[in-house]
Amino acid sequence: MRKFALIALMAFATPALAEDVTMDSILGTTMQEVQASLTAMGYEVRKAEMEDGMIEVYFVRDGKMGEVYVNPQTGVVTKLELKS
Question: What is the pTM of this model?
């Protein structure tokens, strides 16, 4: 019974489907918020920095790399590059 409860708890703790980041995504207005949003969406954040007034974050998910730029005033994605 204890093993079943643990398995059930793990099923609820792990999202069934990961959400994709898009140009419509609002990720946050600070570097920490953007990183947390991407992590919650199932991405592994590799690097985050400020560049030309934008929050720039490099990420990986399912073996695919990407780069996103976020406006720190609005939290909106301004540029998104996905690489194979």
Answer: 0.78
Going by pLDDT thresholds of 50, 70 and 90, the confidence category of residue 13 is very low
d(CA 51, CA 47): 12
Place of tokens 């949003």: 37
Quick one: average pLDDT of 50-79? 97
**Percent of the chain residues past pLDDT 70, beyond the cut:** 80
Domains of the chain, first to last? 19-83 (3.10.450)
